[in-house]
Design goal:
This protein has 810 residues and is of the alpha/beta class. The chain is built from 27 helices and 25 strands. A hairpin with a 2-residue loop joins strand 16 and strand 17. Helix 8 runs antiparallel to helix 9, helix 21 packs across helix 23 and helix 23 packs across helix 26. The longest helix is centred in the N-terminal third of the chain and has 54 residues.
């Protein structure tokens, strides 16, 4: 409890002597009896009080103010107890101030405090000290404790005059010691006033001892603080000295580069980074490591590269997403011809972002043969959505670290392709194209497809951790688009995360329009040709498509157009004014035809049939030939057939053997006939079950001598019981049939729903017949089915075929 808050004890044994003398209200000062002190007086009424005392017996009453801020104190603004002092000397120090030297005489209680004639007067009653009733031994012990405490206190105040210490240590008078020590201690005014108000000498000395103990405790704490501060200052000075030396040495070694400036720059960049505090703390720790390393060391270089990589990440930077669907549609129409269904799916995706901008988790996979425009569609999608575009080529990647990055402890470590793409895009919401995702490989270094599981999962990629940067980065705003030629090569868990958009091969008419509207203009501009110097007839484009390229897309077609532009540019450079390319002079530029037009046989033949095959570059017509010759029952399979295709041939032979009587076939043909089944384009490997109905029909034709219609093509898996099962790749296969001039295509009945995906032009030109039995296939494909229809073994239990006529939608 503060001394000033203690209740002042009731004072008794008071002298009845009263006197009225001049008075001064002191600010921040307490005068004790026997205390000789000087102070400055500046208030006019106080100067007048000094002058009045000097004209009389020199006695003056000195009492402290309770509030030093009061300029004109009244009775309530001063304490009740003060000191009657004798003025020993007055010295004028300025026109409005004097310095007074006084000596305290005795304590007095203030009765009246008033101002008369601009002079302050006080009526006071003398206070006599109480007689102490304590034992002499207690007083002796108390004085010793005070001596010890004061001596210890002086060790913390070396500037205290020695005569004060000597006076205190030599005095045995409790009354004198209490007043003298209180006057010498640098304690608050209210504490000194409390000592002044104590009339019992022993009680006064006890109060002074309490004050000394408190001051000693404060001094010890202060000494500890000073010691710590001094130690820190010494360490800082040492660090500063060493840093200055290091700076000079670095300047000699590395020229004018200032390492401290570099560190400051890094610190400022980290502070300005709009990332969370945890990431900032990680980067600050790296800067601290850098500050302790020699600037030219390998470790310092590693940390610099790491910091530069992390600071280059676009934290908080986004681009404005375009929500105008009509504008996006115009961009897609301008950049790409056709692909109506694909454009509809893309516009639907953009519409979802329009209604719900924070939509996450949409991952598209553009699947189709090479050259159909998967990458260019992704670029147009990014452009139409207002997103930055970045492409990551995944073909041949077999190291998981290519996706997730290398840990920075390794030599040559760097961030993965995902983080690099984000940095290159300059925003956190770009469109990133993962090109050729079906070409990923795996080896002992890990499986990159598994690393992509987190990247392409909207529930996980908001905390994607690249091994190099080693802190979470949010990928949830990134729009991922992947491309593939064959989705069957994509792992199922990865494929399950994507919305598949199939891009079929282009029709002949589509290729012509794409070349005319886009490719020719693009290559002319690229080769510096204009309409005044270069002309290409439309028929040339048709010939390029038919005789110089064989593909589902237009990539090779563009290269042929580029070759024509180069040859034309040379002729113009040699002096010709204008080059015109026609169908007649096309061979002069590109040589003889590379391909013959994909077409069907001119007429129906026995044992030859049009099969339909799917390849990575689209669909193709695959003619199947079967020849039955006298022999011993051998079966020969040629044309680079795979195991599955060979099994389909065995199934076809088994079914024909089981149904030989029904078709007028010698039941012992498998004993006395050698069967040779051959697929054209023998150098190209072939496999798959979809040629089952083709081989069965060709085999029946060869054994019965009934020709197969040359305008019919077919696809479907066959079983040994004659069922026709569904197949894949129908869209590509029907396009090949359309290009070759096929009029009727036989398909499995379970593939009827896939007709919805067929291009309208194809559906209008081809009649589709959906079957579920081999018997139905033979009925449509063979030119003469009389004996088959009359056979009693063919019953209605086989069901009815479904015909989708040409020029009519299914």
């Amino acid at each position: 409890m503060s001394i000033t808050n203690k209740k002042i004890e009731v004072l008794d044994n008071l002298s009845v002597e009263k006197l009225t003398i001049p008075a001064i209200a002191l600010r921040g000062l307490v005068v004790f009896p026997h205390d000789v002190i000087h102070f400055d007086v500046g208030r006019e009424i106080s100067i007048n009080a000094v002058e009045t005392a000097m004209r009389g017996d020199r006695f003056i009453f000195l009492v402290p103010q309770t509030d030093a801020a009061v300029d004109e104190p009244t009775r309530k603004d001063v304490y009740d107890v003060g000191t009657v002092a004798r003025v020993r000397q007055v010295l004028k120090i300025s026109d409005d101030g004097v310095r007074v030297l006084v000596e305290g005489v005795w304590r007095a209680r203030l009765e009246i405090f008033e101002t008369r004639n601009n002079t302050t007067y006080a009526t006071v009653t003398t206070l006599n000290e109480k007689v102490s009733r304590t034992k002499a031994a207690y007083r002796e012990a108390l004085i010793r404790r005070v001596h010890e405490a004061f001596a210890k206190f002086t060790t913390f105040t070396p500037k205290m005059p020695k005569d004060i210490k000597n006076t205190v240590m030599s005095s045995q008078n409790p009354s004198f010691l209490g007043d003298y020590i209180a006057a010498a201690l640098p304690i608050p005014v209210d504490d000194k006033q409390y000592v002044l108000e104590q009339l019992n000498p022993v009680k006064r000395l006890e109060v002074v001892l309490d004050i000394l103990k408190r001051e000693l405790e404060i001094c010890e704490i202060d000494a500890k603080i000073n010691e710590k501060t001094h130690r820190n200052i010494e360490e800082n000075q040492r660090d500063y000295y060493l840093r200055e030396q290091l700076k000079v040495i670095s300047g000699e070694l590395y020229g004018e580069e200032d390492p401290d400036a570099e560190l400051s720059l890094y610190y400022n960049k980290v502070e300005a980074l709009p990332a969370n505090e945890k990431i900032k703390e990680i980067l600050k720790n790296e800067v601290n490591k850098l500050s302790k390393m020699p600037p030219g060391s390998h470790e310092a270089t590693v940390i610099r590269v790491y910091l530069d990589t992390c600071l280059a990440l676009p934290f908080g930077k986004t681009t404005q997403i375009n929500t105008d669907v009509k504008k996006a549609e115009k961009i897609l129409e301008k950049d790409h011809y056709g692909l109506k269904k694909i454009k509809e799916q893309i516009l639907e995706t953009i519409s979802v972002f329009t209604l719900k901008p924070d939509t996450k988790g949409t991952i598209l996979c553009l699947s189709g043969p090479p050259g159909v425009g998967k990458t260019s569609i992704a670029k147009s999608l990014a452009k139409s959505m207002g997103r930055n575009f970045e492409r990551i080529a995944l073909g041949g990647i077999h190291d998981e670290a290519e996706i997730r990055g290398h840990r920075k402890t390794y030599i040559g470590a760097m961030a993965g392709k995902i983080i690099k793409a984000i940095t290159s895009a300059g925003s956190t919401n770009p469109l990133i194209l993962l090109d050729e995702i079906d070409k990923l490989a795996a080896d002992y270094k890990g499986d990159p497809a598994s690393a992509l599981l987190e990247v392409l999962d909207a529930e996980q990629n908001n905390t994607f951790v690249d091994h190099y940067i080693d802190f979470p980065f949010d990928l949830s705003d990134v729009f991922f688009v992947t491309t593939a030629n064959n989705t069957q090569n994509i792992p199922s868990p990865l494929l399950d995360r994507m919305d598949i958009i199939e891009l079929p091969g282009y029709l002949r008419e589509d290729k012509f329009q794409i070349a005319k509207q886009h490719l020719v203009k693009k290559q002319m501009e690229k080769h510096g040709l204009t309409s005044k110097t270069f002309k290409m007839e439309d028929s040339v484009l048709t010939d390029l498509i038919d005789f110089y390229t064989r593909e589902a897309g237009v990539r090779r077609l563009e290269r042929r157009i580029a070759a024509l532009c180069r040859k034309a540019a040379r002729k113009i450079a040699e002096g010709e004014a204008k080059v015109k390319i026609t169908s007649k002079n096309l061979t002069e530029f590109l040589g003889k035809h590379k391909y013959t037009a994909e077409s069907i046989l001119p007429e129906a033949e026995v044992g030859i049939i049009n099969g339909l095959a799917w390849t990575a570059v689209g669909g193709e017509i695959m003619q199947m030939e079967v020849l039955a010759v006298e022999g011993t029952g051998k079966i020969e399979l040629t044309g680079s057939l795979g195991d599955v295709m060979k099994e389909s041939a065995s199934a076809a032979v088994t079914w024909v053997r089981a149904n030989a009587d029904s078709y007028g076939i010698d039941p012992d043909f498998y004993k006395n006939k050698d069967i040779h089944i051959h697929a054209t384009e023998a150098a190209v490997p072939k496999d798959g079950p979809s040629a089952g109905v083709t081989m069965t029909t060709a085999l029946v034709s060869a054994l019965t001598g009934i020709p197969v219609k040359n305008t019919v093509a077919m696809t479907g898996e066959v079983t040994i019981r004659g069922r026709v099962l569904p197949i894949g790749g129908l869209n590509e296969k029907t396009m090949a049939a359309y290009r070759a001039g096929v009029k009727t295509v036989i398909i499995p009945k379970k593939n009827e729903p896939d007709l919805e995906e067929i291009e309208p032009k194809v559906r209008e030109a081809i009649e589709f017949v959906a079957v579920d039995r081999v018997e139905q296939v033979l009925e449509v494909a063979l030119t003469d089915c009389k004996k088959i229809k009359q056979n009693p073994n063919i019953t209605a239990a086989y069901g009815r075929k479904t015909v989708h006529p040409a020029k009519a939608r299914p």
